[in-house]
Write a structure and sequence with these properties.
251 residues; alpha/beta; 9 helices; 18% strand; globular
Length: 251
């Protein structure tokens, strides 16, 4: 069964990384939510993609320079449409509570690249265990040192290595980082990579896939998860491919 991960929530329709986008993704039938974790000046874990607040709020500056109370004064919905005015930057705790209420999985991407957030891994892992969601979480990052550090903190949480380009034998590389999954950009994955990853016991979750043809192709190639801005669209494709396997798919 392919995992349907909503990329920053249902971000194809609603302002990304807001509780509205997360709730709507669940309503659209996602299996999990992918989101981005950064940290405020006073150590609160918040969910926003960019290191700066400029693109997705009416504020300006780096997330790390704001206190959580200051971030709460920013509007994180207006940029996406006046109908979304008033949306706020959520915390990791808010999403964990939603996950616990609905049973969805979570993919927390730790944004520990451009800005080095000291202790972010420890804080996030502590929260995940506090809310009892360790069995339904994967931690991911483009900073693979961060993923190794997560495994040093606890080997029990799953980690996924994000990457953009065509790594040579990524299954072997993943072994050096003690990772559980590969998270390649969809252009950087093929059947050989998926097969070799599965032989190593690795999952392959690919991003960010929004068109129907590519969704179908990746499902047939055997990926374990697809990260998409359109979880409702992917849900329909997955249902269609089930019919295909049963000899019933006509479209």
């Amino acid at each position: 069964m392919v995992m349907n991960y909503a990329h920053r929530g249902a971000s194809g329709y609603f302002p990304e990384n807001t509780m509205l986008a997360f709730v709507k993704a669940v309503e659209m039938g996602c299996d999990g939510i992918e989101t981005d974790v950064q940290m405020t000046r006073d150590g609160v874990l918040v969910l926003i993609h960019d290191e700066r607040v400029d693109r997705t709020t009416n504020g300006s500056g780096l997330v790390k320079d704001y206190t959580y109370a200051e971030l709460c004064r920013l509007d994180a919905g207006l940029w996406n449409g006046v109908q979304f005015a008033g949306a706020k930057i959520p915390t990791a705790v808010e999403l964990l509570l939603l996950a616990r209420d609905t049973g969805i999985g979570l993919d927390f991407e730790i944004k520990n690249g451009i800005i080095q957030y000291e202790g972010i891994e420890e804080k996030l892992i502590e929260l995940i265990y506090c809310y009892g969601w360790q069995e339904r979480v994967v931690l991911s990052s483009f900073n693979h040192y961060s993923m190794v550090h997560c495994k040093e903190i606890t080997p029990d949480l799953k980690t996924g290595l994000l990457y953009m380009e065509g790594l040579y034998r990524p299954n072997i590389y993943a072994r050096t980082a003690h990772a559980d999954a590969l998270h390649p950009y969809f252009y950087a994955v093929n059947e050989d990579i998926i097969r070799e990853a599965h032989l190593e016991g690795l999952l392959v979750n690919t991003f960010t896939v929004n068109d129907l043809a590519t969704m179908r192709r990746l499902i047939r190639m055997g990926v374990d998860g697809i990260i998409t801005n359109h979880p409702g669209r992917l849900r329909s494709v997955i249902a269609g491919d089930k019919k295909c396997l049963n000899g019933l798919w006509k479209g």
